[in-house]
Amino acid sequence: MALWQAAASGNAQADYQAYLAAYTTGKFVAIANNRIAGLTKTAPAPLPSSSRRHRPPLPSRSPPA
Asked: Looking at the record, which segments are called Disordered (predicted)?
């Protein structure tokens, strides 16, 4: 139970893998696998800077005469 608590509190893929290596049929195997899957999902790639919309500069105001 202590290894699972350490893995869950650290929330790192390596910790869940250590739990799975030590307890191949433990009661938290499914949860550990799900959390590993969630941690290894890749985030969508950001748009290239050339495709981002830029606002044109605001016109400068002349001081009142």
From this structure: 41-65
CA 39 from chain centre, in angstroms, equals 6
Distance CA 3, CA 29 (A): 12
Locate the domains of the chain by residue range: 2-41
Q: Which two tokens stand for residue 19?
A: 């739990």
Q: DSSP label at 29?
A: H
Q: Nearest Cα to 32, choosing from 14, 59, 58, 49?
A: 14
Answering whether pTM is above 0.90, one says: no
